[in-house]
Specification:
It is a single chain. The protein is of the alpha+beta class and 289 residues long. It has three domains: 133 residues, Ubiquitin-like (UB roll); 77 residues, no CATH class; 64 residues, no CATH class. It is 55% helix and 9% strand. It is built from 13 helices and five strands. It has a five-stranded mixed sheet with strand order 2-1-5-3-4. Helix 1 crosses helix 2 and helix 6 crosses helix 9.
Length: 289
């Protein structure tokens, strides 16, 4: 629940005068935005601002910061200035430590803690809501060296893939098994080129994760019939193949790395033998028709 004073402030004798002065300054700000013409105009402006669902919070130095509703503490940090936002370490709302994605409420007291070693990360773009905060984060990321951008993009993509269950192991090797068809489709030269663009904020991290998720589905959603034991006269060999089977086989060939990585040894040979028999059955069926 937001509050207007801390426990220590309540002991101050000038608290009431201080709060009245604060409210008068807020009203004055509204009137200035209204143009200072008349009372009705000021009320109209105040009403429109409320309807726009904007919120304001108070900083430790009693400044009032205003941003659209759903803005996060990181948005407010960048509103204070890029030197505050870029060195964001943690935030305290009403003296409680909150997550970087926390959305302050009306009248909250906000305190941003900075760290000289802190710096923006690609994931921060998903933690802000205002265009200005996104612009400042991208500006910082764009200035990274190629090497640092590669490391940043690689780490960000691996972290998101692990969170979404695409690479539960958290190993970069598992992530890079998924990449070749994705990179080919998107027109990237190699893994490093892809990671660098993500690290520079030029390629959206969520879009990259969506492509990986679709590729992951292609790899794991294998028809259970393909894993059935080889049985002479099995129904799978008597079932007419659907139209476009040749095109499907060609498409599967583009993901042949999947066969090398997921299947190995006897299991892979068994799979390929069943696939060969299906093709022979298909060829014989169409030859007699």
């Amino acid at each position: 629940m937001p509050y207007l004073a801390t426990r220590q402030d309540l002991k101050r004798k000038d608290l009431l005068e201080d709060r009245v002065d604060l409210i008068q300054r807020i009203v004055k700000d509204f009137r200035e935005k209204a143009g200072g013409r008349d009372e009705k105009n000021a009320r109209d402006i105040m009403t429109r601002m409320v309807l726009k669902q904007k919120i304001f919070v108070f900083t430790q130095d009693r400044r009032r910061l205003e941003l659209p509703e759903a803005s996060t503490v990181l948005d407010f940090a960048y509103l204070m200035g890029p030197e505050i936002g870029n060195r964001f370490s943690k935030a305290l709302v009403n003296q409680q430590v909150v997550d970087i994605s926390y959305q302050p409420q009306l009248f909250d007291h906000l305190n941003i803690i900075t760290d000289g070693d802190a710096e923006p990360h690609v994931e921060w773009l998903e933690r802000v809501r205002t265009p200005e905060a996104q612009r400042l984060i991208k500006k910082y990321l764009a200035a990274l060296s190629m090497e640092k951008a590669d490391i940043e993009g690689r780490g960000a993509l691996l972290h998101m893939a692990r969170e979404q269950g695409i690479t539960a192991s958290g190993r970069i090797e598992d992530l890079e098994h998924l990449l070749p068809p994705v990179l080919n489709f998107l027109g990237f030269k190699n893994n490093d080129d892809f990671y660098t663009q993500i690290g520079h904020g030029e390629f959206d991290l969520n879009i990259a994760a969506d492509f990986l998720k679709e590729q992951y589905k292609r790899m794991v959603l294998i028809d259970k019939k393909e894993l059935d034991p080889v049985i002479t006269g099995h129904q799978i060999y008597q079932t007419p193949l659907p139209e476009g089977i040749i095109e499907t086989e060609r498409a599967n060939a583009r993901f042949s790395f999947f066969m090398r990585d997921v299947f190995s040894g006897a299991r892979r040979r068994d799979y390929l033998e069943r696939k060969r028999r299906r093709r022979q059955c298909c060829t014989a069926r169409y030859a007699h028709s």
